[in-house]
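Chapter summary example.
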Amino acid sequence: MAIPLKKNNTMSFRLKLFISFAAIFTVFTLLVMIFQYDREKKFRIGQLENTLDNITEIAHNYMTSNSIVDSGSYIMMDSLMEILPAENIRLTVINPKGIVLYDSEVSAVESMENHLERPEVRQSVSSESGANIRESATTGSSYYYYARFYTDYFVRTATLYDLRVKDFLHVEKLFIIYLILLFLVTSVILHYITRKFYEIITKLKYFIIRLRSGEELDETMEFPKDELGSISNEFTSLYKELNDAQKNLVIEKNKLYSHLSALNEGIAFFSPMKEKVLTNNHFIQNLNLLSKMSTISAEKIFEVPELKPIVRFIDRQLKEAGVQSSDAR
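The structure predicted for these 329 residues follows.
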């Protein structure tokens, strides 16, 4: 059976529910994407700097073992450059004042300007090492610089910042594509979940509307076989039991009315507050004869003088039972 609901309200509720779930997952996805991108970027930079650091250590050990600083024979560094396995490597030795002592790319090092204010050199003084990407003022090429300070000199290693290095530092977009696909799949799942959730809410609303209008329940209405559907089924089942009990009560009450009407004696039922619950016509007729009044309500029986002993007996029983009658109030 179709459920008569307004389309605008339906779409508004579903849209708000879907947007709420989608917004939470979108924020979560973006946070994961940013974290993973930053982590991958730092990992690749770390790998590159680790390679340059190894070359820097090799150069430092080579200079120490060959007493190059003491002898000033920096030309011996060319022999080291020939055996280094890495390609496009530039090695520079700088004294603490910033004067270039050796550069594998420049023969006339005396013509090179002071390097003390170079970013990677300046950073290596305050930190364990320094790194920077920039264009060389001497060669005109772009390099990824890495420098370390060894008390008596700086050793700076650089790799040509070409397409090969850029590709190496470039973060793979595969995980981004994976997260986007995961987001799309989750969006479809969220759409399905919100639709199912809305269907249950709609059926409960339809159920309550029918109750309020006094219509018969739709016996064909079914709920999903999950926790929320189980609660809805329990709710409808409880109402059906209460409704059936009320119908049975009405049937039994009608039977009682029929029995009372069939009796020749006058019978009445009163609450502890002396309020009429049920009477038959013979009771009213007999009460009118006894009170010698043409019209009298059933509650007036407690005011008939001829029935005072009975009234006192009733009051005494109510008092012993701890029930306060309407007269006492």
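To summarize the output: The first helix runs from residue 7 to 65.
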